[in-house]
Amino acid sequence: QVQFVESGGGLVQPGGSLRLSCAASGFTFSTYGMTWYRQAPGKERELVAAIGGTGGRTKYADSVKGRFIISRDNANNTVYLQMNSLKPEDTAVYYCNGGYWLGRGIYDAWGQGTQVTVSS
User: Fold this and answer.
1) What is the DSSP letter of 7?
2) Buried-most residue among 37, 63, 105, 118 (CB within 10 A)?
3) Strand 78-83 to strand 10-12: parallel, antiparallel, or no bridges (unpaired)?
4) What does the longest C-alpha to C-alpha distance in the chain come to?
């Protein structure tokens, strides 16, 4: 049974940083790319960042390029998103799923997400 458990969100002031984690289980983690998504109120889910299975390739949405860094720990089946220089428009619920930069994740199962709120 595939599961994703996201954590690390919170309330942060503009310019601040957060590190999100996504613990995955139920599939061979190291053989799949992973993608972070986010969904803001009233908006569709959007791609944020992706990383290949070995961590050798990454891709970012233009809106976060230069501010966010995606990484992974295959020994612990976890993918991370380091978010720096946060802006109010980064406010959203953040999710992860399998696959590299796919509009929809490989798996139908989605975690509960982790809320990121950027506000002064």
Assistant:
1) E
2) 37
3) unpaired
4) 41
Residues 6+ apart with CB under 8 A from 74: 29, 30, 53, 54, 55
Residue type, 74: N
> Alpha-carbon distance 105 to 103, whole Å?
7
Tokens representing 106 are 């490989």
Query: Could you tell me whether strands 10-12 and 114-118 are parallel, antiparallel, or unpaired per DSSP bridges?
Result: parallel
For the chain, 120 residues long, give each residue's pLDDT as a single digit of tens: 999 999 999 999 999 999 999 999 999 999 999 999 999 999 999 999 999 999 999 999 999 999 999 999 999 999 999 999 999 999 999 999 999 999 888 998 999 999 999 999
Single-letter amino acid, residue 23: A
Q: Is 118 helix (H, G, I), strand (E, B) or coil?
A: strand
